[in-house]
Amino acid sequence: MQLTLSGRYASLAFLLSFFCFCNFSSYGQTVPQEVADDITTYHLKSPSSNQFQMVYEVSATTPGAKYYYNTVRFGNDAKVDGAIDLMTGDSLRWDLVDGRHARRNGHPKAALSGKFIKVTLARPVPKNGEARIRIIKTYTNRNTYFQQGKEIVFSRSLGIKRNVVILPKGYELTSCDYPSQVTVNENGQIVVSFMNRGTRFIPFKITARTISSPPKPYTANTTNSPSVKGSGRDKSKARLDYQPPIRTSQNREIVYFLQDPSTNSFRLYHDYTETREGIDKYLNVVRSGSKASNPSAYLLDTGEELKVETLKGKAISNKGIELSQEITDETEVVAIWFEPVKKGQSVRLRIEETYTDPNRYLLNDGELIWDRSFGRNRNTVVLPKGWYLTTSSMPATIEETADGNISLFFMNDRPDSLDVYIKAQKR
């Protein structure tokens, strides 16, 4: 079963055509440049320099594409610091090109008046796969980043769905005009991050000033209280050593395709990036009350199909697999095997399977009911064909797919889970 969700990334296409007003080219490749999973981290430098380094990570998803074009926004003095293939960690070739070159060589909607960083991909984008890259560049812009009295100001219109801003060391945050998470990194710098729930650019502004007592640097602590499952900690006491994860930077994403509710089944895929050296498998523990069937998996980086096993009870231990929970006769795990990750490298996996869960997805008096918690930061639910939405307990971005199905996108920027309750009826 091929899973597609065409409407999901419409807002990202808008970002790529920023400053592209009209007059699309009639020559060259006609398939628009498509992307997924993009995130930008802004490292603010000394305010007197008016400079900030941008680390932009993105997945190119246009099948067969050999290049990726990153817009150099008008009004910025840009210096390219490099481009990296995230699968291998190797450097990639890049060139600065104009809009005419971009249109002729893989970006048909490029603005003719624009400038672009053209990155030559390590391998053509595989069918149903992606090419993950990192582009590092430094912008100088006194209108975006500047000193104002005793404070520094970073004010910029941001269209990327996930954004992280790191203040210079020795600065405290004094204001932020968009709901954001605030944490401290290992260098003792304040980190401000947010996820854009909507489909438009966010006018984002923060101010900061120097401080005589810098914050304590982040230190990894294996005794931290769990942040997703509230029942797993004692809520009557403060978490003294708790280090909240930066939700914006988490790379898991899941899409549910609901089948007819009378079957209690839904097909899903979830994407995950593994970066830990030596890891050679991904384990998906099936929730109690659910049944998994027809699992499959492949590397998004290459399109390679992976070995998948469904293990239950003692078969899990016999494979040498350890879980954070007790393994009983009813414990079920879907194991995906791949070559061990090498130092400095990573792999992006897509796991597909069908779940049957009569307790949380069912038909009741003619109404579709979905009642399930989401732990990931990005979650999409696609209703069955012919069904329309009547209830969503949690705020969602709602779209109609190219196939006429209603999809709900839940972006959870909090470090806990969402209890999502959906009802729908037949048209």
Question: How would you describe this structure in keywords?
Answer:
mainly beta; Immunoglobulin-like; 28 strands
Task: Give a short summary of the structure.
With 427 residues, the protein is mainly beta. The protein has helices at residues 10-16, 99-104, 314-318, and strands at 35-44, 51-60, 67-72, 77-85, 94-98, 115-120, 131-140, 145-148, 151-158, 162-166, 171-176, 181-184, 190-195, 202-210, 253-258, 265-274, 281-285, 291-299, 307-312, 332-337, 347-356, 361-364, 367-374, 378-382, 387-392, 397-400, 406-411, 418-426. The protein has two domains: 8-20 and 27-210, tricorn interacting facor f3 domain (Immunoglobulin-like); 251-426, Sandwich (Immunoglobulin-like).
Specify the helix fraction band.
under 10%
CATH class identity of the largest domain: Mainly Beta
Strand content: 35-45%
In one word, what is the shape? globular
Helix count? 3
What name does CATH use for the topology of the largest domain? Immunoglobulin-like
The poorly predicted ranges are: 1-28, 222-231
Counted up, domains total: 2
**Extended strand count:** 28
Strand order of the largest sheet: 4-7-2-1-10-13-12
What is the residue-mean pLDDT, rounded to a whole number?
88
Assigned CATH superfamily of the largest domain: tricorn interacting facor f3 domain
